Predict the 3D structure of the following.
Amino acid sequence: MKSGYVRIGNHLVGDGQRVFVIAELGINHNGSLEIAKRMIDGAVLAGCDAVKFQKRTPEACVPKDQWNIERDTPWGRMTYLEYRHKIEFGVEQYAAIDAYCRERNVQWFASCWDEESVDFLEQFEPPCYKAASASLTDVALLKKMKSTGRPLMISTGMSTMEEIIAAVEAVGEDNLCIAHSTSAYPCPVDALNLRMIHTLKGRYPECPIGYSGHETGLSPTWAAVAMGATFVERHLTLDRAMWGTDQAASVEVTGFHKLVGNIRDIERSMGDGVKRVHESELPSRKKLRRVASVVQ
């Protein structure tokens, strides 16, 4: 593999390649397979390259002192552990998702929040794994995902530079993608710190650097692409007013279609930095140029 590139399924991710666009479906489906399929349809319509879910083993991810804390949900009042099970997909649902994504010709993978979830997802042979920002310091989990031999993406929100360095050292730079991120939902624009994309590209030139955004608008993501992000991830929802903690920081399908369309325009507009007279300029050159150029 050429240095600085990572292959995710049938996509080569890295500088100079087509930006890899991920629709993070997360848990915005609220445990409904039907809603998940509609979200996949929306991602395909928008032109995304992949959709991503989140996989947890509730007993491993929910602290025991929170298991029996009751909360109000759309399904009535239940304990927090019961709620986590309610929105978690199992084998039957992921088998249906796998089949549906193959039918719609879109890749899917997931962020694993515990080691058991990695074992669970291996049966579906995902093209890569993703470590959420919250998991950046869980070295055992990072190494578990990397040990599968599949590419690993890590997000760097809520992290210090020292924590990022330690995580990368733990798993190695080979087959690794790093996403700049700020873990606020939604994230105020003055906390986005997009110049971190340049910082990460300078420190890790062998790793594709991307952007995982949680802002309410679209322009910062476009700016991230213009600054060199090789992959982008945004949360997708059918309706930002739906129940759920991530909905407000998500993008609806219409907005996602605009997001992807403008990303494609931006990457086409970047060019190669070599000055030339384009064919489209020739009529203007003929009409408006009054003094012939003199080559010294």
Notes: The mean pLDDT is 94. The longest strand covers residues 20-26. The longest helix spans residues 253-269. The radius of gyration is 21 Å.
